[in-house]
Amino acid sequence: MMLVEEAIPANLTGSRALQQYIFSIIQTCNTIKKLKQIHTQIVINGFSNKNYLIVKLLSFYITSGNLLNAHKVFDRVENPSTSVWNQMIRGHSQGEAPQKLIELYNRMVEDGAEAEPNGFTYSFVIGGCARSRLLREGEQMHGRVVANGYYTNVFVQTNLVNLYVAGGGDDGVKKARRVFDEMIDRNVVSWNSLLAGYIRCGDLDGARRVFDEMPERNVVSWTTMIAGCAQNGRCKQSLNLFHEMRRASIELDQVVLVAALSACAELGDLKVGKWIHTYTEEKLKAGNQPLLVSLNNSLIHMYSSCGVIDKAYEIFMGMQRRSIVSWTSMITGFAKQGYAEEALEVFQWMQCLGTDDGRPDGITLLGVLCACSHAGFVYQGRQFFKCMYQNWGIVPRIEHYGCMVDLLSRAGFLNEAHILVKSMPMRPNDAVWGALLGGCRIHKNDELASHVAQKLILELDPDRAAGYLVLLSNVYATAKRWQDVALVREKMVKMGVRKPAGRSWVQINGVVHDFVVGDWTHKHASSIYEMLSKITRQAKLEGYNLDISEVLLDVE
What we know:
The protein is mostly helical. The chain is built from 29 helices and four strands. It has helices at residues 15-28, 32-44, 51-63, 67-74, 82-93, 98-110, 119-132, 135-147, 154-167, 169-182, 188-200, 204-213, 219-231, 235-247, 254-267, 270-285, 293-305, 309-318, 324-336, 340-351, 362-375, 378-392, 398-410, 414-422, 430-442, 446-459, 462-478, 482-495, 525-541; strands at 2-3, 6-7, 503-508, 511-516. The chain is elongated.
């Protein structure tokens, strides 16, 4: 009889010696094919109830994602030990049928044999409940853990923190914090779980307090905090933490680089973005470490957002494998920078692939429609919008309708745009009405603008209505309807709203400078306004007539 393509040594005549030999070759097994051969030998030689062999066999099958074969092994065991049960519970805790995990645990308890749940059992069950958001079942396990004396187990308690964090909301974090505060021993994983909970519910200040209290931080701690800040609009804080991480000599992994690049894209911080790109070339690629597709996608997004579209395209072309996010990032990048034809060419190329990665999704089509809108490609935009469901099975969302209304309104097809708004299967939001109102301003259609504005004023809260009221006032001013201009201004006073100040920023010598309309707080404000005055005078001398039709005085 052959065993793993080798004969069983002749001297293995005793059962114990053969068991030890099988145990040793399981330890060195590296393929499913070989494992199945070992499995066959275990059955043939009557070792299906030798728990220590079965544990090793199950561990390999489960680590390889082979739950079906693991069950075939498990079902042959007459009296599974706790370790055997734990392997099966571990497998289901990571599987796609979480309810099976609870069923297996209940079978173990009801079996009545010598095997009893231990700390590993509860850790696997609660961990699976956390992953699958089985909060009610997890809370029941919490009670059993306390009753059976395993509550002080650090792994069990850490998974309880994960469970309540997965429950979400302030209540979930409070419960997670209560478990965490009751822990006698905490490790960095416990701290990271609590940190992730505060990030998940949007409490960045609470997360920062936890982060500052941590006695030990690893790359996961830093990544969680950096990504959390970037995703919650605190991009400057995100990059400050990234610089702190570098100064602390923590090795940067690709996940934290993706998070930092997201902040760079939002702030337009090209200097840090370039540094990260250089780091990936010199440290990761030079070390023969394959780059994650998501890291390349983030580099494309960063360069596109910073206006360096050629560099974004260079990275895109150099990718060995592209995901749908890669294609979408490149299409959207071209669209936002005004390269509509290039965006549509990439989209055409994407469709020619004939693979799942080349199949567009709703976000891809949003980028395509955005490109058409910026370039005024009305015919192409109509065709893409019309074919969304027919060709790709994508049901247009409100964002797609908004893009089409913007495209038609910019191009002067105001009636068509208005009909589209009225035919929408969902209630139009302020962005949709705002796009139509913007078209009215461009094409001086004050009657339609008045109708649109009434819809907006009724549906929006005062803070969001301000910008649209200003836009309406400018439409009326262009049409010389001064009485209506005065009425709009009066309405703004009654509502107590002001138009949010315009804002922009620029990076000079690695420093990002913010500018707000009418702001004199910048240390070089005098020089800036002096230069602006010079440019204005020079423009007038060269025959440029200033367009002040959209200027609206501040409402007191």
